[in-house]
Specification:
The complex is a heterodimer. Chain A is an alpha/beta fold. Chain A folds into 2 domains: 88 residues, Translation factors (Elongation Factor Tu (Ef-tu), domain 3); 157 residues, Nucleotide-binding domain of ferredoxin-NADP reductase (FNR) module (Rossmann fold). In chain A, 28% of the residues lie in helices and 33% in strands. Chain A has a 7-stranded antiparallel sheet with strand order 6-1-2-5-4-3-7. A 7-stranded mixed sheet of chain A has the order 11-10-9-8-12-13-16, with helices on both faces. The longest helix of chain A has 13 residues. The model of chain B has no long low-confidence stretch (mean pLDDT 94). Chain B is globular and about 75 Å long. The two termini of chain B are 23 Å apart. Chain B is 37% helix and 18% strand. Chain B has 3 domains: 121 residues, Orthogonal Bundle (Fumarate Reductase Iron-sulfur Protein, Chain B, domain 2); 161 residues, FAD/NAD(P)-binding domain (3-Layer(bba) Sandwich), CATH 3.50.50; 154 residues, FAD/NAD(P)-binding domain (3-Layer(bba) Sandwich). The longest helix of chain B has 19 residues. By secondary structure, chain B is an alpha/beta fold. In chain B, strands 5-4-3-6-17 form a 5-stranded parallel sheet. Chain B has a 5-stranded parallel sheet with strand order 8-15-9-10-11. Chain B has 21 helices and 17 strands. The chains are: A alpha/beta, B alpha/beta. At the A-B interface, helix 1, helix 2, strand 7, strand 14 and helix 8 of A face strand 7 and helix 16 of B. Bound molecules: flavin-adenine dinucleotide (2 copies), iron/sulfur cluster (2 copies) and FE2/S2 (inorganic) cluster. One iron/sulfur cluster binds next to helix 6, helix 7 and helix 10 of chain B.
């Protein structure tokens, strides 16, 4: 049982929860995630550790409401307890000084991008963040990202905020403008696929952080498996970050739809 | 006294002698082996309740009469933890069931579990004089073991083992499967301060997330866990050693001894085309969703795919558990696809029998070579290569060879891959200096279960790479005895 000590709405559909988890706060590294469960009949869902405070013994999660379980979690309030929470999971991000790094995040990908941008910045890199969303209201964490970025570019599909266009338009503009040494991308699989195709064209090394379906998060079930460089890998233990140019995104897109029908049913279920 | 002398002394007790004299051997061997009461196959293949219903007191006492109380009991040598079988059986014969349960607990931490899941026909029962010499069906040792353990639990007079005065020494256990639980129980009895760290949110390892309710009800495992708690064992769930806390943390926290029972949890796949299609999954994923996450319960948030034509690849206990689960979740056609013949199947004979009664189809001498999906990526068909049996391989089983050109395509909408597991690498990777085999198992001294690091012991599937509940428990016991010796040097 882990107590929620702070809740903050970043927007209507994005909630930050600061949760007591002293052991995880101490051992986590950027890029690590946790798996939690809300209620005795709750599902295990993976969430990135956005930040941690060792002294206070807390970790912060940034959750975007997507379906039943993420909504159920976002309904919890300060003082409530999360039934189970385990971590830190996954391999930490490999951080080094490479020069200029673009952090390209969209949708659910912005929250997990935050600690990664922070770490690259602290390692002495020039960090350019490209945030993408459908429309102005869905842009999240812009201020937080600014703290760790030399520059933040916001792209909206409808042009209601920042520049009009897709994430790839933003990334391409930067690549054409200056030398980029690394692109890190997190977001919907389809977005990562197109970012990856783009950077392949320009020969810029690219890392994608994959958000597959998971159950245990410790390598036990294989639900999270994907193909990288022709080999089956488990995202929870071998990842979540992989060389984007080697990832079979089409297969990943397909696998994300595995429980679509079941999830529709779950979504219509009351959360309390 | 040596083990043999103790056995003899117990056998020479007056009550045992009188029981033996009370009935002629011929009368005993003429009795027929008891039949287990079972739920009707048609009914049980639609519910999740336990299939075996147990014996009545009368049936158990009659079955116990069949045992000849042999002077050199072969059965004991067939049991990996050397349960004093005639002693517990003879106690059942004379109606002292609680005494029988006590005899079981002298060497086995979880008799209610082993009575249900041990492959008895390969262990104790295979060495019984009835099987070895008389050409008859063995004494039903497993059924009797289950009976005594259940009787004790239901009597409400469960004996909590006596615990020695606390000695203040802290011991850590990694993993709460049968190896970890039996180790923890023995150490607690000797007065150690034991903490069990478990990665999942439930305690019990495979007993909880793997073996289904219809074969091993969770409440039976829970009673044993409660027992350990009342002996002072502490459980710390959601804690992965190597991730949440490190080996160095354990050292710093002054844990004097560490036992690794982290199991062989990693699923193997075959690396054939189409294996990542939707609907193809490991038995670990399938059973974890259903058993640990209760996914078949509409109130549970975790989904599970419900197939109509379900193929399970493999022939072990895990495959049988998966195929019978699929039947219970509503599969019209549930098939075992196994590349050898039924004779080579590693599953317990009872599970194969039960599966057949429940309408499971057996496609032996078939091996999948490809899965074919629809435009949305759902598996729809599988291609099977027919096999024939060739020469015996290293394991002594006849190895399957392909029949050239004999390929068949069948319709499936769900495939469960159940071809074995590999050791969980988390602990081996995170403890510096631990000797690991090429297969990824922890190398131990077989007599003491000690690893290459002083004070660190290991047992169960992380050492054996996939074995049985009773072997895992036996390892736990052995490790406890030698760790105690080591700490008292
Ligand atoms: C390593 C990892 C880290 C993650 N970190 C974060 C994080 O920091 N913050 C956050 O908000 N989310 C994060 N996610 C995603 C998060 O786990 C999912 O959003 C959550 O499991 C959805 O559960 P649900 O029941 O609310 O939605 P569901 O009912 O399960 O899904 C609703 C719909 O969304 C689709 N969907 C489900 N999961 C994903 C996904 N991962 N990516 C894209 N589409 C999906 C489904 O196909 C379905 O159509 C992470 C995922 C992984 C694997
Ligand atoms: C479906 C199925 C059916 C089976 N049927 C039978 C049967 O009928 N009869 C029989 O005798 N055997 C059967 N077996 C085999 C038997 O269950 C195993 O041999 C036995 O459970 C091994 O016990 P263990 O204690 O070594 O490991 P496990 O039972 O695997 O337990 C290991 C535990 O350690 C935890 N863990 C792993 N890593 C860490 C870590 N780093 N930190 C903390 N915790 C960790 C795991 O989460 C798990 O709970 C079956 C196995 C399966 C999967
Ligand atoms: S523990 Fe298993 S092998 Fe030993 S006597 Fe009991 S059923 Fe037989
Ligand atoms: S070998 Fe068979 S008959 Fe003899 S003591 Fe053992 S169980 Fe009884
Ligand atoms: S989530 Fe189960 S293996 Fe990755």
């Amino acid at each position: 049982m882990n107590k929620i000590i702070r809740k903050e709405y970043f927007s209507e559909n994005v909630v930050a929860l600061e949760v007591e988890a002293p052991l995880i706060a101490r051992s986590r590294k950027p890029g690590n995630f946790i798996i939690l469960r809300v209620g005795e009949l709750g599902e295990r869902i993976p969430l990135t550790i956005a930040s941690a405070d060792k002294e206070k013994g807390t970790i912060t999660l940034v959750i975007q409401k997507i379906g039943h379980s993420s909504c159920k979690l976002c309904e919890l309030n300060e003082g409530d307890y999360i039934t189970d929470l385990v971590g830190p999971l996954g391999k930490p991000t490999h951080i080094e000084k490479v020069g200029t790094v673009i952090c390209a995040g969209g949708g659910v990908g912005v929250a997990p991008m935050l600690p990664i941008a922070e770490a690259y910045k602290k390692a002495g890199n020039r960090v350019i963040t490209v945030l993408a969303a459908r429309t102005k209201d869905l842009v999240i964490l812009e201020d937080k990202m600014r703290e760790f970025s030399d520059e933040v570019v916001v792209m909206t599909d409808d042009g209601s905020y920042g520049k009009k266009g897709l994430i790839i338009n933003g990334v391409e503009e930067i690549i054409n403008r200056e030398k980029v040494d690394l692109v890190v991308t997190i977001g919907p699989a389809i977005m990562m696929k197109f970012v990856s195709l783009l950077t392949k064209k320009y020969n810029v090394p690219t890392v994608a952080s994959l958000n597959t379906i998971m159950v245990d998060g410790t390598g036990m079930c294989g639900a999270c498996r994907i193909t990288v460089g022709g080999k089956t890998r488990f995202v929870c233990v071998d990842g979540p970050e992989f060389d984007a140019h080697e990832v079979n995104f089409d297969e990943m897109l397909m696998r994300l739809g595995a429980y679509k029908e079941e999830e529709q049913v779950e979504k219509n279920k009351p959360t309390h | 006294m040596t083990k043999e002398e103790i056995l003899k002394a117990e056998r020479d007790e007056t009550w045992r002698e009188e029981l033996r004299k009370g009935k002629k051997a011929k009368e005993r061997t003429d009795l027929q082996r008891v039949k287990m009461h079972e739920q009707d196959p048609e009914i049980r293949s639609h519910n999740n309740k336990e299939v075996n219903l147990g014996l009545t007191l009368e049936e158990a006492m009659t079955e116990a009469q069949r045992c000849l109380d042999c002077p050199n009991p072969g059965c004991i040598t067939g049991c990996p933890v050397e349960i004093n079988i005639p002693k517990f059986v003879k106690n059942i014969e004379r109606g002292e069931i609680l005494e029988a349960a006590k005899a079981l607990k002298e060497t086995s931490a979880l008799p209610a579990v082993c009575g249900r899941v041990c492959p008895q026909e390969k262990q104790c029962e295979s060495q019984c004089i009835y099987t070895k010499k008389l050409g008859k069906e063995s004494v039903a040792i497993g059924y009797l073991e289950r009976f005594a353990a259940d009787y004790e639990r239901e009597s409400g007079k469960m004996s909590v083992p006596a615990v020695a005065p606390a000695n203040g020494l802290k011991i850590a256990v990694i993993g709460s499967g049968p190896a970890g639980l039996s180790f923890a129980g023995d150490m607690a009895k000797m007065g150690y301060d034991v903490t069990v760290f478990e990665a999942l949110h439930q305690i019990g390892g495979v007993l909880k997330y793997g073996i289904p309710e219809f074969r091993l009800p969770n409440h039976i495992v829970d009673v044993e866990i409660e027992n350990l708690k009342s002996m002072g064992v502490k459980f710390f769930t959601n804690c992965i050693v190597g991730k949440t806390i490190s080996y160095d943390d354990l050292k710093e926290e002054d844990f004097k001894g560490i036992f690794v029972g982290s199991g062989a949890g990693l699923p193997r796949f075959m690396d054939i085309p189409g294996e990542n299609l939707i609907g193809v999954m490991s038995s670990n994923e399938y059973l974890t969703r259903v058993n640990l996450m209760d996914a078949a319960n509409p109130a549970s948030d975790t989904p599970v795919l419900i197939g109509k034509n379900v193929a399970i690849i493999g022939g072990g206990n895990t495959a049988m558990d998966s195929v019978r689960t699929a039947r219970r979740l509503g599969a019209e056609r549930a098939m075992i696809v196994y590349r050898r013949s039924e004779e080579e199947m590693p599953a317990r004979i009872e599970e194969v029998k039960h599966a057949k009664e429940e309408g499971v189809e057996f496609m032996t001498l078939h091996n999948p070579i490809e899965y074919i999906g629809d435009e949305k990526g759902h598996v729809r068909q599988m291609r099977l290569q027919k096999m024939a049996l060739g020469e015996p391989d290293a394991s002594g089983r006849r190895s399957p060879v392909e029949i050239p050109g004999a390929i068949e395509t069948i319709d499936v909408d769900e495939v469960i891959v159940s071809i074995g597991v590999s050791p969980n690498p988390l602990v081996p990777e995170n403890i510096q200096g631990l000797n690991i085999s090429r297969k990824g198992t922890i190398i131990v001294n077989e007599d003491s279960m000690s690893s290459s690091i002083p004070g660190v012991y290991a047992g169960g599937d992380i050492v054996r790479g996939g074995a049985t509940v009773i072997l895992a428990m036996g390892d736990g016991r052995k490790a406890a005895a030698s760790m105690d010796e080591y700490l008292h040097q």
